[in-house]
Structure formats: structure tokens, C-alpha cells
């Protein structure tokens, strides 16, 4: 039985990856941080599984990582833990750097200290935000990086330190450059979940309107449940390489809004431009979506679009098993049920 260690196991990706690996017959260990508030709702259903184990550990604490990796001696490590919110990284840049940059180094060094550099394969969750102020579209493994936030800069260090350890020490460590991947388990502060929850609440008369930032921002949105399969495939590859994980399709925040409200039973039409643009209910004429300067970033990435050709060709991965339209429908249906229970 293979052993996998997942940092960030309580997150969206960690929960889906845990389910995927358990189905593959793995023994799964997940790291959690000590907190007075329980954030385990995404993995509650797994805690009775005899092959699923939780251990305390933190990317900001190298000793805890050395101890944990030395005890578990995993065959595979999936480093998913991060301060993963781009906007928040402008507010807590030092913490973001400590976890998202130096934290990756701590994982790699812990593997070496424990003498597992020849046996343990490591997956690093990288990000499309590396491309930032994009220099070409779509973006592939050869596109130059131009990070445009403290989060992206920290993640770029993580990417390069993985590459350095691969070349310097012959370690099987790889980065998956993940483009935006969403699901019904996405955190409620992320824009897609904010939209689907608002659509559900407005449809059920529990919210008046939704305020967003740049409606013209373009993203490559996929389903997180599909993306964890590609993470696994990267570590099953014959040689350690980095891969773009994306759908190859692009949509605007505006399109996401229109489709989300449609699945909630409201047809939107947009009028105006820039800060004056509004989303209006076609039936009632009521303004339901507005643009607010509060949601603009100091530097904003507006055009992310991934090219998954390498992952498709070399790994046999299907990036569009779940279509964009189906993804939005899944999220809205989940949030319609959630809102109905709120009372």
C-alpha cells in the first residue's frame, strides 16, 4: 500500500485528492494546524476511514515537517498548503512569503534530512498567477513568468526551488501550474463561490445585490475534482516534469455571473462600462450586480488562459471532463440547497 502525505488536506483540493487517492488504494496522511476553530468540514466524511490519518504539521515549522515526514516516510507528497488568496497576499505579504515560498523549501529539505530524496516523489501546487502580467496567450510551460502579486512572487520562488532540487539532487519533484479550479467546496471569499452564493441568496430573497471588481477579467476555469487526477498523473510519470493544468478555455467574470444567475432562475443583462457597468434582472429591471473599487487589486491580472496540450499528450489527462457550464451548474445547485437551509 502506497503512502501519500497531503499538506493542506482540509482545503478544496486536499479533500478531493484524499478521496481520489483512497479510491486508488493509498494510505493517506493529511497535515492540519492546531486551531480553536474546526475547519474540517470538507474531510469530515473521511475521518472514519482506517486508511485516512490526520497529523499536526505546519509549513512555517521545519521541525514539525521533519518529524512528520520521518514518521510517515511517504512514497508521495502533495504540497497543497498555502496562503492561497491573491487579494489577501497584499495585506499579509510576509506571511504569504513564509508559507508559499520558504514553506516549499522546508518540505524539500525535510525529505532530504529524512533520507527519502531517492524514494519520495513530491508534487508542488504552483499557479497560473506566475504568468501575471501575461506576455503571451495562451500560457504554456514555456511562457515567461511575470508575477503580479505578493502571492505570485512567493509561488515563483516555490516553482524555482522545486526545479533546483530536481536538478541539484536528482529528486523526483514537480510543479503543476494550476489555472483557476473551482467547485462547490471552494472557499466563500473566492470570486466564483461569492457569485454562486450571491445568485442563490438573491434568488431566494436573502440578499439585495452583488458587488464585484473587474467584470472583464478573463480566466481559465476548471473543476477541482478533475484537476486532482492530473496531480496524481504527474507523479506517476516516468520522469519529473512540470505541467500546466488548465482547460484551454477562457471566460470572463461577466460570463460566470450570467450563467450562475441563469441556473438560479434569473436572467441578467449587463449595461454600462468599467466602474459604471451593472447587471440587471431582465424581468424586473432591478440592479443585482454592481462594480466596486473595493475589489480592484493594486496590480490586477486580467488575462489567464492555459494551454494543457502537454498534460493531454504526455499524461493522457482530459481537462474538460466537466465543462465550464456544468461546473457553474454544480456550484449553483449546491449553494441553492445551502442557502435554503440557512433559514
From TrEMBL:
<protein>
    <recommendedName>
        <fullName>GDP-mannose 4,6-dehydratase</fullName>
        <ecNumber>4.2.1.47</ecNumber>
    </recommendedName>
</protein>
<comment type="similarity">
    <text>Belongs to the NAD(P)-dependent epimerase/dehydratase family. GDP-mannose 4,6-dehydratase subfamily.</text>
</comment>
<dbReference type="GO" id="GO:0070401">
    <property type="term" value="F:NADP+ binding"/>
</dbReference>
<feature type="domain" description="NAD(P)-binding">
    <location>
        <begin position="5"/>
        <end position="331"/>
    </location>
</feature>
<dbReference type="InterPro" id="IPR016040">
    <property type="entry name" value="NAD(P)-bd_dom"/>
</dbReference>
<comment type="function">
    <text>Catalyzes the conversion of GDP-D-mannose to GDP-4-dehydro-6-deoxy-D-mannose.</text>
</comment>
<keyword id="KW-0521">NADP</keyword>
<dbReference type="InterPro" id="IPR036291">
    <property type="entry name" value="NAD(P)-bd_dom_sf"/>
</dbReference>
<dbReference type="InterPro" id="IPR006368">
    <property type="entry name" value="GDP_Man_deHydtase"/>
</dbReference>
<dbReference type="GO" id="GO:0042351">
    <property type="term" value="P:'de novo' GDP-L-fucose biosynthetic process"/>
</dbReference>
<dbReference type="GO" id="GO:0008446">
    <property type="term" value="F:GDP-mannose 4,6-dehydratase activity"/>
</dbReference>
<keyword id="KW-0456">Lyase</keyword>
<dbReference type="Pfam" id="PF16363">
    <property type="entry name" value="GDP_Man_Dehyd"/>
</dbReference>
